[in-house]
Design goal:
alpha/beta, globular, 19% strand, 10-stranded mixed beta sheet, 322 residues
Length: 322
Amino acid sequence: MPKVSIIVPVYKVEALLDRCVRSILAQTFTDFELILVDDGSPDNCGKMCDDYATEDTRITVIHQENGGLSAARNSGLDIAKGDYIGFVDSDDYIAPTMYEHLYKTITQDGADVACCGITEVFSNQSKLMYAPHKKIFCSTEQALGIIMRGKYMSYILCCKLFRAYCLRNIRFKVGKLYEDIFFTVDYMKNISTMVIDNKPLYYYYRRGGSITTSPVTKRDYDLLEAYDKNIELVKTSFPSLKPLGDFRYYWCRFVLLDRILLSESPGNHFMYHDLITTLRKNAIQIIKIPYFRKQRHIGIVILKLSVPIYRYFVKRSAAKEC
């Protein structure tokens, strides 16, 4: 049996798939199985997956009707044989030593989850996602706190290696966006320890278009639901993390409101009034949350006084990012 199972959902990434797969096959750690899940991709990805499998006996291919990222990952989990499980997205790629690093970390420290850092790759630049930090061995409570803070680690799953036993009764929620947040809330209930060594070994490819400026749809309710689940976990199991839970609860509402305010007629958006009301009603509490940046504290004061002026600053900030 392989020590590690690596699950890669594949859908409409014909131009990027080879880079992803080759980076996995080039790993210095070799005792793994690679599960490629062709999620009904309409391009040449399915055939490419089959061709890879003829080249390397460590590769297993699943072909299925399109069900989305969560359904594809679940199919991989259903057949995974490894003692440890990792996920890689098919438009991303990894450093040659990533799984050697993660495997050594998780086995030497006896942890349930091991993490590495991420480099965000844009068309014209790259940057570290997390601030560099020495290795952190933490309890579940400490791990969730670090993830919610977002400075040294986040909810993203693909930079993590999991003890398979801890995922035995967990599956991704099919049909939901922000699946990594939902999954994090679930696996946190099954683990005792996490090791965070954020040496950047995972390359997260940012394709054209930014989620920070894309239109908000009804599916974005999933973001609110995911963080509502997050704060429920905090309240029931980790009450000392309530300030961080509140931070994420309001943070996601700011994120959606800012995107709505970039549209032509924000006042007509179905989420607009609920988001405005929630944030303005809790302005004092938001100001007291220490994890928001100074700009966000200033922003909530402006939002409380005048939505048009707040919108002006949101649009100006978005223009600087372009």
